Amino acid sequence: MKALILNSPGDLAIGEVPDPGPPGPGDVRIRVGAVGICGSDVHFFERGRIGDFVVREPLVLGHEAAGTVESVGAGVDTLTPGDRVAMEPGIPCGRCDLCRAGRYHLCPEMRFWATPPVHGALAEYVVHPAGFTYRLPDDISFEEGTLIEPLAVAVHTGNLVAIAPGDVVAVNGVGPIGCNACLVALASGASRVIAADVVPERLERVVSLGAASAIDARSGSLSDAVMELTGGRGADIGIECSGHPTGPQTLIRAAAPGGRVALVGMGPQPVEIDTVEAMTREVALFTVFRYVNVYQAAIDLVAGGRVRVAPLITDRYPFDRAVEAFEYARAPRPETLKIMITL
Amino acid sequence: MKALILNSPGDLAIGEVPDPGPPGPGDVRIRVGAVGICGSDVHFFERGRIGDFVVREPLVLGHEAAGTVESVGAGVDTLTPGDRVAMEPGIPCGRCDLCRAGRYHLCPEMRFWATPPVHGALAEYVVHPAGFTYRLPDDISFEEGTLIEPLAVAVHTGNLVAIAPGDVVAVNGVGPIGCNACLVALASGASRVIAADVVPERLERVVSLGAASAIDARSGSLSDAVMELTGGRGADIGIECSGHPTGPQTLIRAAAPGGRVALVGMGPQPVEIDTVEAMTREVALFTVFRYVNVYQAAIDLVAGGRVRVAPLITDRYPFDRAVEAFEYARAPRPETLKIMITL
Amino acid sequence: MKALILNSPGDLAIGEVPDPGPPGPGDVRIRVGAVGICGSDVHFFERGRIGDFVVREPLVLGHEAAGTVESVGAGVDTLTPGDRVAMEPGIPCGRCDLCRAGRYHLCPEMRFWATPPVHGALAEYVVHPAGFTYRLPDDISFEEGTLIEPLAVAVHTGNLVAIAPGDVVAVNGVGPIGCNACLVALASGASRVIAADVVPERLERVVSLGAASAIDARSGSLSDAVMELTGGRGADIGIECSGHPTGPQTLIRAAAPGGRVALVGMGPQPVEIDTVEAMTREVALFTVFRYVNVYQAAIDLVAGGRVRVAPLITDRYPFDRAVEAFEYARAPRPETLKIMITL
Amino acid sequence: MKALILNSPGDLAIGEVPDPGPPGPGDVRIRVGAVGICGSDVHFFERGRIGDFVVREPLVLGHEAAGTVESVGAGVDTLTPGDRVAMEPGIPCGRCDLCRAGRYHLCPEMRFWATPPVHGALAEYVVHPAGFTYRLPDDISFEEGTLIEPLAVAVHTGNLVAIAPGDVVAVNGVGPIGCNACLVALASGASRVIAADVVPERLERVVSLGAASAIDARSGSLSDAVMELTGGRGADIGIECSGHPTGPQTLIRAAAPGGRVALVGMGPQPVEIDTVEAMTREVALFTVFRYVNVYQAAIDLVAGGRVRVAPLITDRYPFDRAVEAFEYARAPRPETLKIMITL
Fold first, then answer.
1. N or C, which end of chain A is more exposed by having fewer CB within 10 Å?
2. What's the angle, vertex CA B174, arms to CA B173 and CA B176, rounded to 5?
């Protein structure tokens, strides 16, 4: 079958890979319908590595995916051929202490799509465990289905910091994850979302998504703006999605006493944090890694109309132009948020 | 000044009471603008008592109130004359262990409006601590401002049971508190709210407020409906607002494994609970008493458009017809939800 | 091999059952060293059923067990032959939503020892998943190892109600589970444990285990005693282990404002609860079902000396007198707490 | 009356200050019995400032204090003359949002002893609110009573990170706060406490207090030691009490997946943190500021024997040698932990 293969940094091509074959017990075979491009895909494309994960063999990219069930393996009774589905892209071992404790996202044996040496979903077919394959309601498109993945990050983040109705939420960086964080904050009852970015087009978009205020971080300070907008009280919740080294400290400074800050964006390390400033207001920092046990909730939020992810899609490419899509993703227009590849 | 005075059970009249005078230090004097009638007001009117609280002296009724600041006492710098405000109707001691621990609603010295011997707010003026008086944004009317009180019950309930985005929420009984519970559940990201009542008009209304399903409890079972609608999984959250003795057990039966049930409605006691059934799915029961530390959040939810309380107001009376309003409240039309008295 | 087989209610005998054979992949084969008798074993012996679980075929009893690893199956690298181990007696599916969410004890496909139709551990050998088999340090005997099981119930209970250092804890009923609850409360920093029972010998024992006060429930009231001993404040935590229908209400009455009550003991249903009394102090009720993710913690508590379970063992029988042990368990001396069968 | 007065950095003397006079309403007058020297006292002595708090006027030092009630003001019914007491040294406003929410330690109007311009307790008498004055049981000495203050920091820390029975706890830095953190961890059921310091005498002491392992940080790494001792799993809880800039990162590295790290010690800022390393195991950081709502719990822990603080006292001076005590505190013997001044 055809797949989008990263042979080495910068060397990306559509080529042939072995068909995954029929689904084994507990698995389903899925005809891929759409795949969103994530920053990590582009990073692998450009650099060939993220931290300890190095592309040493040709790698199929893509982990934000939706499609149609083609056949089901033995013992699968939750899905049937023809079901439209979104796939949670990480498969944990299911047996270790972390899996048993409900933290399977931290499983040391996690196999995650498009993370070397595990192939991703930018291919005609994938075989995936039924337990990590979720039926999509009719009113959710494949493209929206791929966005369940970044939305899941935001839902998990919201659960970790426990956004409560009435909270003021500050979001630093409103790329795809930051936008999803804003949407989840609003769906969780945040009375006011204050977002910052350095791209004017992103600031416009986040306001259209419901943010009360959008701060241009090139000319203004998110923490100053939060303090001014809250009468000096600060934000109950901060969500760092920019990956910029000053992001954590900015959100500590923007936090209300007892505030909680989630660190989602990854960037250059280490970062400098004034822990004494954090202490004087007893601000807590929650680091976030992917998501766990929220994929169905994310789908339900979209299905129930609480969260609208469609506006996050800005660019579309058919699969045969997937290389072009990645080339574009390296230097997109400022208004680009999520690039979609349809199969 | 004029006030609505309950002299004895069934004997209610507008009469003269001493003007509260100028505000003392930390207090504000408020011209009352609107007062909502609560079930407890009607209960005192009819029976003259609720539990240990007995009307032994003439009592001014009303505790859901909003109005305009007329003057402020020494040391008050958060409010100024002319401010439109909603008032949190209970004043705790501020010094006991419970107050210090952030649970002032359980303060044994709580003085709560319209709870004998503390007079309520159905009067021309009240003097109230500035700390329990909250400025209303311009776009919240006095009538909506009175609804902050029952909304606060629902917000507090949601905090206790920690509604998470994507949760299925079952609400038993959709009078004013139950409707607010539905609104808060939706504002908290509930993917589906399933409500039950015995009054068809209430079922219609709760659907118009956003509930996905409304069950007529005269002919159907909320727990059966929840199980059917969730494919046998059950509700993550149950909120009992009917006060009916079978309510707790109904919601235990409707609960998913690990589900949490809030008991808000008060009714005949004791109730029968099958604790073994609860154990087998480890359902937890949270009892709810009024609210604490959520008044501002409730206002912000309305101000930010997350919750619309105006549709809950079904009947309006001017203050000089307040007795008539209470007579009506004893046997209202089925579509009546919240009766408002405007001053 | 030999096993203790319940053929029908009251008909118990040592007999031959098929040897479980060599361990399959991921499993270990264990020579059973000791098995404690639990109330549920005696209940099956006498009545032949607990709720929906009915003994329809001969059933091997016993689920509190420790022993020695004899051989390990393919892929097992955490245990080796000769390891002394305690076994967590329930095996969940590992794939359902509840298993994935860290609540495997509520897995609908749970296979739990000595719960029809799943055979228990009162046999010469068992084969068990390595993941649910825990190495015992040298200083924990097999007999103590079997007590990890009821201790796990208490640890899980403590986690659910979140006992904090300095808490006052009231325990109703101090049989084996209640004694373990006292031990866990003390190990969790409870400043005072107040226990009640109707058996004087149990009251003496619980004091020797560290309880500050022991109330004879035949002549006194636990809630009265708690209020007197705490100056009217009440208990932060209540743990119901008696199964008596009045237990929940007794602990609600004994609870401080904001108190949390765990319901562990199972008894006649339904129970009557005054939910309005609970509401006025916002008491929460947590129901408890077995345990999850705490077996290793329970072992560590014993190994580190925080909890001493050995004093709970009051009676010992060799395996060939196991029937006699069960006969004795039907009407034991009052000082009997835990009866141990050694193989 | 006599008091220990800091006139300017390095200029400390016993002198006369105005007697605080009789207690006002709600207050009690206390004859001070003992005062412990805290690092912050020594810091003010040496530098004359901590952050924004600058000694501009003569300041009475000391905030860890116990004594005897001499007289009580109007309305005080919880204490009587002759009561032996420990005093919580910070007085919040009691009215702001933070006070009402149970976070009075973050009150912006907090008046805290020996923090300019608020005088401390190294004087013959203090007048203090009865609500922040706690009766000591007969078996707790004044000296132990002063240690309730640093113990309260540790209890609050334990509550923030929610130590659960069976947890492995790593403590970095075992001065007075670190030792108390170890004691609280053990009292909370920690199965193993692994501590590090650079002072051999402190390592010896912490082992005598119950720590399972003590790591000399000059020659070894706490994170390496934790990983080795836990078979690569890591610590459930980390508590940073050294104030060293590498402390937070050391504890992140020592943390198990999902671990929680408390930052208690204050030191040079900013600190460098590898947030990506924290993310990959989803480690959370809780910053700690003093304590709130735990003074009684801390007393109860000592009274009930769960925590023994007496071994932390290493040096004693009578009040007339208080200056000498402070001089000693600038360069103490390595085995010095807590220096006590008795009046």
1. N
2. 125
Q: Is A109 on the interface with D (CB under 8 A)?
A: no
Task: Return the structure tokens found at C297.
Answer: 């913690």
Task: For residues C158 and C153, give the distance between their C-alpha atoms in angstroms, rounded to a whole number.
Answer: 9
Question: Chain B contact for A301, CB < 8 A?
Answer: yes
Among B65, B43, B67, B38, residue whose Cα is nearest residue B53: B43
Is the CB of residue C135 less than 8 Å away from at least one CB of chain A?
A: no
User: How many angstroms separate the CA atoms of C29 and A152, rounded?
Assistant: 41
Q: What six digits make up the tokens of C65?
A: 């067990």
Query: Residues A257-315: pLDDT tens digits?
Result: 999 999 999 999 999 999 999 999 999 999 999 999 999 999 999 998 999 999 999 99
**Nearest C-alpha in D relative to C161:** D164
Of C97, C263, C282, the CB nearest to B289: C282
Strands C125-129 and A111-112: unpaired
CB of D146 closer than 8 Å to CB of D114: no
Residue C36 contacts residue C122 (beta carbons within 8 Å): no
The pTM (predicted TM-score) of the whole model is: 0.97
Question: What number of H helices and E strands is found in chain A?
Answer: 11, 21
Please count the other Cβ atoms lying within 10 Å of the Cβ belonging to residue B102: 19
Taking residue A21's Cβ as centre, other Cβ atoms within 10 Å add up to 9
- Residues with Cβ within 8 Å of A322's Cβ and at least 6 positions away in sequence, in order, are A4, A14, A122, A341
Both tokens assigned to C250? 């007794």
Name the residue type at position B9. P
Q: Does D109 have pLDDT greater than 90?
A: yes
pLDDT digits (tens, 9 = 90+) for A238-253: 999 999 999 999 999 9
Best of B134, B163, B191, B233 to disrupt the A interface (most A CBs within 10 Å) is B191
Cis peptide before C137 (omega within 30 of 0): no
Cis peptide before A257 (omega within 30 of 0): no
Q: Does C270 touch chain B (CB under 8 A)?
A: yes
Q: Which residues of C touch A131 (CB under 8 A)?
A: 95, 100
> For residue A263, what are its two tokens?
């660190």
C217-259 pLDDT, tens per residue? 999 999 999 999 999 999 999 999 999 999 999 999 999 999 9
Q: Which residues pair with A17 in a beta bridge?
A: none
C-alpha closest to that of B58 among B48, B47, B67: B48
Tell me C210's DSSP state.
T
Backbone angles phi, psi at B294, to 5 degrees: -130, 0
Instruction: Count H helices and E strands in chain C, helices first.
Output: 11, 21
Beta bridge partners of B3: B15, B123
Q: For residue A126, give the nearest of A2, A7, A289 by alpha carbon.
A: A2
pLDDT score at C254: 98
Tokens of C88: 């967590």
Do B39 and B13 contact (CB within 8 A), yes or no?
Answer: no
**For chain C, how are helix, strand and coil distributed in percent, rounded to 5?**
30, 30, 40
A296 three-state secondary structure? helix
DSSP alpha helix (H) spans, B165-321: 176-187, 200-208, 222-229, 247-254, 275-280, 295-303
* Chain D residues closer than 8 Å to C167 by CB: 297
Strand partners, C86: C66, C134
Query: Is the CB of C187 less than 8 angstroms away from the CB of D189?
Result: yes
Q: Which residues of C touch A94 (CB under 8 A)?
A: 94-95, 99-100
| CB proximity under 8 Å: A 306-335 to B | 306
| Number of other residues whose CB lies within 10 A of the CB of residue C109 | 12
Please state the ipTM of this predicted complex.
0.96
Closest CA of chain B from D254, distance in Å: 31
CA distances from D153 to B222, D180, D298 (A): 48, 8, 9
